[in-house]
Predict the structure.
Amino acid sequence: MTTTTTRPATTGKDPSALSLGLHRGVIELKGFFREWDNVVFTFALPIVLLALLGSLFSGIYEGSTVTSAQYFVPSMIAAGVASATFVNLGISIAADRDDGTLKRLRGAPMPKSAYFLGKVVMVLVISIAEVVILLGLGMLLFDVELPTEASRWVTFGWVFLLGVIGCSFLGIAASSLARTERSAAAVMNLPYIVLAFISGIFYTPISALPEPLQQLGAVFPLKWMAQGFRSVFLPDDILPQEIVTTSWEHGRIALVLGAWCIGGLLLCLTTFRWRGRRDR
């Protein structure tokens, strides 16, 4: 007598890359918040800089109601978003590459896009938290007022999203520059600090920068993120203190940030490595 084994019918579909990426994002967030030293450094650096430098600035710009400290707040928000995306992603991916996580994930039956989507979910949540904390600090210490016009919040939304996407792609691409996990922090923080200086983050106003640095900073997305956020949280009477004095150039901001999103994606596709150099 022969017995026939019947497999149960499966009606469910394989999980999509989107659902796997969201699940991976939850795992990434849990891993991030378990490492308290990383959490403290990620959030504390922009907060400490805002509190210290904002307290050092004084005075009101001529022809405006904006103080030097208030001018500094949206610029520091842009720097906080760049830190949460570019620096944090570069270091975390370099660590995954160094400890063999990327090598194992590449061989797993999971779409490669799910890994990157998980990382983007992580930095998106961190960036939102960074913005809330910095904006709250600016309101508490420097009397920054939230805009009441819906159009300003729409501007904030697309500047934030384009900035997060562009800086995330650049962080993923730059992660390949670090040979090991130990060197990743230095490799990622050096260009971040340089870009912060030439993008006018630590200058109030940006027009105080030497013209060659203004032109160099205008090549990169951080300068345009900061200008976009200033257009949201500062009144238009501060425009004479900007490099441009007639408008906030929202069209140009969108064009430059969008170009860096596309360029960053191309850099990721051409430079990203799944294996560390020691594995070759």
The radius of gyration is 22 Å.
